[in-house]
Amino acid sequence: MHTITLKAHAKINPSLDVLAKRPDGYHEVRLIMQLIELHDLVILEWNAAEEAAAAKEDGAERLQIRLTCDAAAIPCDESNLAWKAAMLLASRMEEAGKGYPCGTLRIHIEKHIPMAAGLAGGSADGAAVLLGCSALWETGLDLSALLEVGARLGADVPFAMMGAARVNAQLGMTEDPMAATCAVGEGTGTALTVLPPVDAHVLLAKPPIGVSTKDAYEGIDAILGLDGKAPADPLPGRPDIDAVILALNKHDLFSAREKMGNTLELYTLKRYHEVAYTKCKIQECVQNGAALMSGSGPTVFLLAPDVQEVQRAFDATEGIQAQRIMTRTIL
To answer: Could you tell me if 130 and 150 are in contact, meaning their C-beta atoms sit under 8 angstroms apart?
Structure first.
């Protein structure tokens, strides 16, 4: 029996722009992703018992998965991305001629990242399972090959894998060039280029609602005219991602904050007044700062160079209906 415990970190989007709608229904995006200290714990226990090999010959299920989570709202079945990650890697091993893993895999998720928050918590858990299983099953796949597998699970998974590889030393991948805590994503978000990390303290505020990513992208199609029709209204300035990248390369958070933005806010802030209110209340608390929505929402975050600014915003927003968390970026 072998066990490995991994940290699965949340991410925020210091900038996100939607560029076009693809024929396959997905969207061309350009976005910056940054890992933060807030994380789940993913505990993997692998038992490659002899009876499992015998079961294979008898035609029984070759890989048995037992998934548990301390959060009752998390599904512990085939719909969970952590479960899908293990099954996908097992299939990938068989396709590559490495043999299908036979045994029992127990996955336990200790949940700390809020659900349906735009922080990629589910993707982080799936990424940790994929990397952890690769280590337990001794696949021999390097990080670049594993990132290709992860892209089949979802657009946020490859970056979550880059971050997990960087922060979990037991995986033996910390020195890989693609192991990083900040990156720019292009295409559907899975074409990744490493960036210098954002050095900042962070306030997260999640209103008690969920935002459908599918609805957000369908809504932004009409707003930006990506559905073939003219945009409904004049649009405010979109994020200047090149300027943000230039500032990050210079480790200039002040200049980067001035150019950050999230195009999906054009839909979510109009559709969900709770998110707009949360962003407004945080923005009132700071000077020369930017409160931004992460992903399609509903979480709003504030990046600040010092913890005092985050603490002031935390104290000033005590009365709002939102789960608030103080954390920081990972360098």
So the answer is: yes
